[in-house]
Amino acid sequence: MHDLQAVHAFVEKHRRRRQSNKVLHGHPSPVHWLEKDVPMRDVLQAREQANRAIRKQVNLYVGTPYCLPTDPDRCGFCLFPSEIYTGHRQLDEYLGYLEREGDMFRDHFAGTELASIYFGGGTSNLYKADQYPRLMDVVRGVFEIPPHIEVTLEGIPQTFTHDKLLGMKQSGMNRISMGVQQLDDELIKASGRKQTSEQVYRTLESCDALGLPASVDLIFGWPNQTLEAMVRDLEAMAATGITHITHYELNVAGRTDFFSKSERRTPHDGRQPGDVPRGQSGPRVVWLHAGDTIRLRAERRRAREYVSV
Hints:
Elements: H1 4-14, H2 40-53, E1 57-64, E2 66-67, E3 83-84, H3 88-105, E4 113-121, H4 132-140, E5 150-155, H5 162-171, E6 175-181, H6 197-210, E7 214-220, H7 227-239, E8 245-249, H8 257-260, H9 262-265, H10 290-300, E9 307-308
Parallel strand pairs: 1-4, 2-3, 4-5, 5-6, 6-7, 7-8, 8-9
C-alpha cells in the first residue's frame, strides 16, 4: 500500500462501503462531496480563511488504529475501523507516519488554539512507556499546547502498567480513560478479551498513586448480563472514588459477532426490556434502555460519582 495509485484505488473501492458506525467522523461525508478531487492545500486554506472570520478552538483527536487480536473479532461488538496488532514494529512505523504528517501540515495549523487533546483508537496504550514522549512530541511539533488543557489517553485494562502510566504523565498526558465494558470476569469473556477485574483495580490504583484522573467506560445490555450484575459493576466502580463513569448501551449492529448471533445472544428478537430470554431460568437477564440507566442513576448516585449515558 505504499504506492500512491494503489492507495487511491483502495480508497475508491471502499469509499461507498458501509462502515456500520453511527459516529459521523466528518460532515458532510466524502460520499456526498460534489467535488471529488479537492487538493488538501485548498481545503486547509479555506479553513484558515473561515477561522479569520470566526475564531475557533480545536479539539484534537489522535488515533492509534491497532487492537489486540480477539475471538470474536473486534471484541464482538466494536464498530470502529482498526487493524490487528502484531508487534511494536507497527507502532514505530506508525509514529514515523504521524511525524511525517505533522511536518506536512504544520504550517497550515500555525496559530491554532487547542481546547483539548484525546489519544484514542484502536488501543492507544499499546505503546511502550518510553514511546509516549514521542507521541506527545508529534502534537508539540504542530501545535502549541496550552498549559492547563485536558490531555486524555484511552486504553484497555490489560495493557496498562504502572510504568506506562508514569510515562504518560511525564510526557504531558493528564487524564486516563479506561474501556472496561464489563467488570465481571466471566461476562467479559464473550468479547474474547483476556481481561480481569484485577487489572481494572490495579490500573485505578496506579492512576490514584500518580495523581492521574481516570474515567471508566461500562456497557449495559451485554449478553447474559443481569440487572444485579450491572448494578454490582456500577457500585464497585463508584466505590473506588473515580468521578466519571460512562455507561453505554450495547450497540448491536454491523459486521460484528454480537449482531450475527443476535437471535441467540442479544435482545434483538422482538423481546422488550425486562423480558426473560426464551428457555432461560435462574437470574433474570434484563435488556436495559437508556431511560432505565437514568432512573438508576437518580436512585444510586454517589456524592462523587458522575455517570453519563
